[in-house]
Design a protein that fits this description.
homodimer, 225 residues, Pnp Oxidase, Chain A, ten-stranded antiparallel β-sheet, globular, Split_barrel_FMN-bd (chains A, B), Pyridox_Oxase-rel (chains A, B), Flavin-nucleotide-binding protein (chains A, B)
Chain lengths: 225, 225
């Protein structure tokens, strides 16, 4: 039983919604993998239902352990709806990285190498002042680690204008594709090139604000990028 | 009246769903801008409703004029649902590019520079064989322009296993943020660095398949990247 407990602690429990109908070998419920994919992203795609129809919006997010936080204006739709709806707003939050273009000899087997995380759950408004502050720090630190400590914290007016919602990492799966193109055996001799064109991400030189006060230097945590 | 007609042709008509409740200055309905954002992306996030809850999945797409196409296994959920549901499946398809991290003196004004397109509509299964072939070509050419002509076309078995859905570009909006951090006037003298850290995308060296037939050269359209 000890082994079972350890396994459960390291992975999310699959549910009907997180077990795919196909390509099951591409799915993972490993917490470390899920955290790594989430932490590498800048924007998630948050889905919710409005008047019976789906809405998918890109938005920033932050992670604290097994909790994700999203923030926005108190007037924005999903944040307002999560407060108005009891016991919260059903959402689906998805983060995707495209790692490479997969070119096969056959049109059919063209694909991409990617890593994605899909989180299903109920988004709830965070009202506890301490948790709200922690969540807002996590959102800023998600953009640049350590940045929250090197900026002016939110004041009362800003806090009042900001809604924070929480989504627990509970019903979660990762999905990924890696490696070569998978052509059928009878296509291997075709004269078309096959392989992967990797996509790379990087940072350009930091662009200081036009109104930057004289003498303000680029911080070390940005020089290292 | 001629001017009005020209304006309408160049832009999508805003609807209740595509006019935001805030930051309206970041919205655009310009068709050229929408097309450019869509054509630059590799993956869209497709949202639909299943058992009353939202689902958001990353998937490839292709564009032909004012139509978007998504494909997948005939067994995959959204593609199956779009065929079973009459008159189609309500979806929301979103494409987002993250262009830079915006660091403000205040935690509150941290943001990202981005460009996104949100498409609302009804996804319908494509059954016409000619349109299906054109859509599958568009999907391959979206990954690498011109690639469809340099690969083996889908055979009968592959076509039978592939479902294609169409989403018309009708209820569409783009949203974007560009430029500096926007701090409040009283924060401009704070000692925190403010500005933008640009994110850059590029391609790595192509990785040929391990089972590539001898003598198959890298095509010119991949050398140019």
């Amino acid at each position: 039983m000890q082994g079972t407990t350890e396994t459960e602690a390291a992975a999310y429990t699959p549910t009907d919604r997180t077990v795919p109908t196909r390509s099951m070998d591409r799915s993972s419920y490993d917490k470390e993998l899920v955290h790594a994919i989430l932490d590498e992203g800048y924007v998630c795609h948050l889905g919710f239902v409005r008047d019976g129809a789906p809405v998918v919006l890109p938005t920033l997010y932050g992670r604290v352990g097994e909790r994700l936080y999203v923030h926005g204006s108190t007037g924005s739709r999903p944040l307002r709806m999560s407060g108005e709806t009891d016991p919260g707003l059903p959402v689906c939050l998805t983060v995707t990285h495209v790692d490479g273009l997969v070119l096969a000899r056959s049109a059919f087997h063209h694909s991409i190498n990617y890593r994605s995380v899909v989180v299903h759950g109920i988004a709830r408004q965070v009202t506890d002042p301490e948790e709200r502050r922690m969540a807002l720090d996590a959102l800023v630190n998600h953009v640049v680690p350590g940045r929250a400590a090197d900026s002016r914290p939110a004041n009362k007016k800003e806090l009042a204008a900001t809604a924070v919602i929480r989504l627990d990492l509970d019903e979660v799966s990762a999905k990924l594709r890696t490696g070569d193109a998978n052509d059928d055996p009878e296509d291997l001799a075709l004269p078309h090139w096959a392989g992967v064109l990797p996509l790379q991400k990087g940072y350009g030189a930091p662009v200081p604000n036009a109104d930057l006060a004289p003498g303000v230097e680029l911080p070390d945590y940005l020089k290292a990028r």
